[in-house]
Amino acid sequence: MKKIARFIVSVKKELKRVRWPKKKEMVVYSTATIVSIVFFMAFFTLVDSVIGLLVKVF
């Protein structure tokens, strides 16, 4: 039980040291993430379509 209590205390200490992002930073990070996801989704959809067409041809 002492180990669990010590762990929780150390977690609380670490969380106080964390530099949490501001709202503006979070908007920028979220936008970059969503744009990246959409880009890769379109890229892999295109690649999948091309490979599908090649398989049908051969």
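(ticket continues) Second input and output from the same batch:
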Amino acid sequence: MKTPQQQKGAQGENLAVQFLQKKGYEIVVRNYRYKRGEIDIIAKGIHQTLVFVEVKLRSSDAFGLPEEMVSENQQNLIMATAEQYIEESNWQHDIRFDIVAIQLPKGQAPKITHFEDVFY
């Protein structure tokens, strides 16, 4: 059974998947793990670009915006995990690291913002 935090995270990832698919992305993998790292969504974008997406969800901005919550350590883990996926899949084209930030204020529709190419 999932904790409330895990349920909220899954809800955010589902919203992000729907959002990306509407934008024309093909979802390749969800919750890809390698050692201590995890990538929420791996998708193919246009022009043969593999996109590694970190989903950040917040119910308020009282403690900062969702997109500000990706630490340097987390970025490094995501990049190391992406390297493993690239090697496993023998990917030979461009890659990119994105953030999908979701704000879920009580009683309001979600606000979803897609930040492309946010770290290297």
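Agent notes: The longest strand covers residues 49-58. The two ends are 35 Å apart (CA to CA). Closing as not reproducible unless the customer responds.
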